[in-house]
Amino acid sequence: MTHPHPHDVHRRLSVAVQPVPKQDAEARKRNFDETYIGFDVNAAMVEASRCIQCPSAPCQEACPVSNDIPGAFSLLEVGDIIGAADKFRETSNLPEMCGRLCPQEKLCEGACVVGFAIRPGGQKEPPVTIGKLEAFATDYQRQQLEGYPMPRYLPKPTGRSVAAIGSGPASLAVAEQLALEGHAVTVYEFWPEPGGVLVYGIPNFKMRKSIVDEYIAHLEALGVKFVCNTYVGRDITIDDMLDGQHDALFLGTGAGVGNAMEIEGENLTGVHKATDFLVRGNLPPDQLPAHLREPLPKLTNVVVIGGGDTSMDCVRTAVRLGAEHVTLVYRRTENEMLGRGEERKNAREEGVEFAMLTLPTRIIGDEEGKVVSVELQKMELGEPDASGRRSPRAIKGSEYVVPADAVAIAIGYGADPLVPQTTSGIKSDRKALIQVDEGGRTSRPGVFAGGDNVNGADLVVTALADGRRAATAISAYVATLPPRRK
Ligand code: SF4
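Above: inputs. Below: predicted complex with iron/sulfur cluster.
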């Protein structure tokens, strides 16, 4: 890549950031459509031209899958949108999803030089809007092609069979990479539809479901098989699957077990784990298991507990379900919140109230066991804990009660212990996180793992990066095996 002339850098830095059109808050409160309408072609080309083509590309360094961002933008700014999309697809299986879901301010955009440069007069501008451009280019390409781009030739079958357990980002990346090499891949999923967290964790207003549906159809066209409604560890074990059926196995079961508050009233009717609340609010019953098919009732006062992105998904879902008062309760201040600032801004625009430095102490029900209110207590911040975040301390006598006909608990997720418990030879820690080496190899030959069941709850893009690394290691592993008996 050639370094742009200093005059060109000066000109590029003088281009103002292009706003990303989004639905007005009042309109979007009444629908589940995507909040962001996204760039049009002209705005995307102008925005891409703000990239100064840094030779060291700190944005690329900060990207867990090392997307060639300046390479893509050099094509996009001259109108080669499909070329830009292909550039993103060289290193990422899910660019339209990462463009929507990554916390870019902590990754590529947080490292973008354009956001640090001081213009004449001391003026600063935001970094290049990398995520929304990635989503734009790859959406445009799929629209033009009416689907995901297929390889020119399908590979010759290798005769090897690999199973991926779970169908979230890590397993989907494994499936695509291995299918492109000619391996037969079967993906097993507990939920009724494939996609894992992409379907059952991400609300439609952040990413429309059709994007995942199209990607699954693309994988099927590559030969990947999906087996749903199958709980590996209960309905079938890893030991069974490796007994002649598959040559290798990838565990991508994620971290989908919602943490509990362990306070009084948590089992009342109307108190939901975050995922249950989100899926019942966002998906039609036929895409849900039997115990979650009943739609949520009409809600008036909703309290959501937690400070991450999932809690924002819950409050914004509650708003769209027509709740009159939606309150987010978090025991620290906004400075300690781990989720995206952009999501908090969207939630505030939609009328969500934030109760900071506030801890739920009990959930109160009526005689029929249905939630009616939540007791809250005010907190103050004390000394930093081991992670450097200041620990909240309760203020005695500050308790108060707020009405609630639904409570959603979104205080983090853990890994499901069932697979490590029911599989011989796999090492895991006390949080059920599976131990792997840098290629995703577990302690049992032929069994690989990656994503949230290895790292703990993390990002889509980190799971995707793990899946790509594991696919390379799985491919190398199956190549060492003796031929399969017919
Ligand atoms: S850091 Fe920003 S300006 Fe530099 S190459 Fe990346 S996107 Fe372009």
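The pocket of iron/sulfur cluster is lined by residues 51-54, 57-59, 69-70, 112-114, 128, 130 (CB under 6 Å).
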